[in-house]
Amino acid sequence: MKSALLVWGGWDGHEPKQCIDVFAPFLQEQGFEVEVSDTMAPYEDQDKMNALSLVVPCWTMGAITGEQEKGLLEAIKSGVGIAGWHGGMCDSFRNNTEYQWMTGGQWVAHPGGKVEYTVNITKPSDPIVAGLSDFKMHSEQYYMHTDPGNDVLATTTFSGEHAPWTKGTVMPVVWKRMWGEGRVFYSSLGHVAADFQVPECLEIMKRGLLWAAR
Q1: Which domain CATH number covers 64?
Q2: Cα–Cα distance, 97 to 11 (Å, whole number)
Q3: Phi first, then psi: what are they for 21, rounded to 5°?
Q4: What is the pLDDT of residue 48?
Q5: Which pairing describes strands 81-85 and 105-109: parallel, antiparallel, or unpaired?
Q6: Phi and psi angles of residue 83, each rounded to the nearest 5 degrees, phi first
Q7: pLDDT of residue 31
Q8: Of 85, 193, 209, 213, which sees the most CB atoms within 10 A?
């Protein structure tokens, strides 16, 4: 049986538990043995971590210990998948550059706060976004520093209304990549649980979870 560890915590504004509660039942329906933790203590058990199929983190800001970071990163290098969204994965530990290297990006701004913007599907041949059309979101439009090695599946273009120097900037929204033997999937969508009521947002995340899992 496949196994998934879902870890939530950090800044409450991103509704970490509520978001995890969206996906834990889905993974169970897909045949995963699911463990949900509100601490990062499981990361410290390397044998347990290496035996997982998937890690789903939702932890904004905060801090991770050296032992916890090592346990997580080594597990992914060994072939454990990781998939996450928004600040729960790419604004987690601002002092941990190796963690950021693994994820493929780091949040730096969301000009204007909650705004309406378009998500453009840029690689429709990829199964994670196949059959989906461009769609609208009314939420935070993440401006990120991203790895040029990411396999980008969707982007958004900044209007410049709230930060004029960003006008026309095309920003990755959804990507996948490898870290050692592990598959890494990320979507910047999902500021709060209600964002996953947008069908395309939810579907992309579900597909990304299944793609990342070994």
Answers
A1: 3.40.50.880
A2: 20
A3: -65, -20
A4: 97
A5: unpaired
A6: -145, 135
A7: 98
A8: 85
Distance of alpha carbon 211 from alpha carbon 214, whole angstroms:
8
Picking from 171, 11, 187, the residue whose alpha carbon sits closest to that of residue 94 is 11
Cβ atoms of residues 85 and 207 within 8 Å = no
State the pLDDT at residue 36. Answer: 98
Judge contact between 54 and 184, C-beta under 8 A: no
Number of domains in the chain: 1
CA angle, residues 128, 59, 121, in degrees to nearest 5: 25
Contacts of 138 (CB under 8 A, 6+ apart): 114, 115, 116
For 97, the 3-state DSSP assignment is helix
* Gap between the Cα atoms of 87 and 33, Å rounded: 25
Q: What pLDDT sits at residue 22?
A: 98
Q: Which residue's structure tokens are 């840029």?
A: 122
User: Which domain does 193 fall in, by range?
Assistant: 3-212
Task: Decide: helix, strand or coil at residue 111.
Answer: coil
Distance between CA atoms of 24 and 4, rounded to whole angstroms? 9
Mean pLDDT split into 10-residue runs, the chain, 214 residues = 98 98 98 98 98 98 98 98 98 98 98 98 98 98 98 98 98 98 98 98 98 98
The reported pLDDT for the residue numbered 102 is 98
Rounded to two decimals, the pTM is: 0.98
Which two structure tokens, joined as six digits, stand for 109?
Answer: 């701004």
Q: Inter-axis angle of helices 199-212 and 16-29, to 10 degrees? A: 60
